[in-house]
UniProtKB/TrEMBL annotation:
This is Uncharacterized protein. Residues 210-235 have a biased composition (Polar residues). It comes from the Eukaryota. Residues 209-235 are annotated as: Disordered. InterPro entries: Cystine-knot_cytokine.
Amino acid sequence: MPDSFVLEPQREVISIYKDDFTTPPSRPQYFIEVYRCVKVEVGECSSSGPSAYPVPKTTNEIEIVVPDITNKDRDSSNKKKFYKYVVYNHTSCQCGKLTYRNGPPNGRLYKTITNNEVSAAYFKAKYSKNTVNLIRVCNVCNNAQPRYKLHPKHFNVDLQYKYLAYQQCLPGCVVVKNETSNKQTSMLSGSSVNVPLTNDISCKAYDGAKTQQQGKNNPQKLKSSSSETPVGNSSDQDANYEILVYIASGKVTLAAFLLSL
């Protein structure tokens, strides 16, 4: 079938740093909405062979500039440091091979930059053009966010199962309820493989002592969005702690950087 039958890019919420929602210790937490080619219907892309994937046909780049918010990456002169990150947003899709080369890659969302440090002047010029950081959006913890992950055996799985969809609470939000189920997937060999898939069903904003007390009363019910062995949630506890701190004081920290430039 022709490539035009590949479904449109699907909405996803990602970290600007890595696929797994984690954040480097010296960077502010930053989560944005993008679109990615991840879906096809049964029988589509058959002319491209068994190694085909849904890949971008056209993309645009989203550039984000951020400050170093700690002293961990500062040099001996205590010079402030700033960085840029570039994410690919998929605008149309086709069938193709999954590649990891530099340049607009098929499947990957993150542009490889050899040296992503920028000057203070560059940061000040670009900061106002940053796309919305969802960590600062009111009520962002009211709903789990759409996420996608490559099948652990994606080289040998049928095309419609290359990417697995799941829902995840934004790091720093409290997971009120989640569930793990086995997603049955079909392999090229004709066999079936079950993949454990964790979905966050409901989330809430962190409310300090009240949430901690509820966690003590119901330790299995309330937990922060964190690492899971199954495909799904993948943030660690240290990262979540830093995110909670940032939610409370991130704007003040960033404002201090801007005022001191």
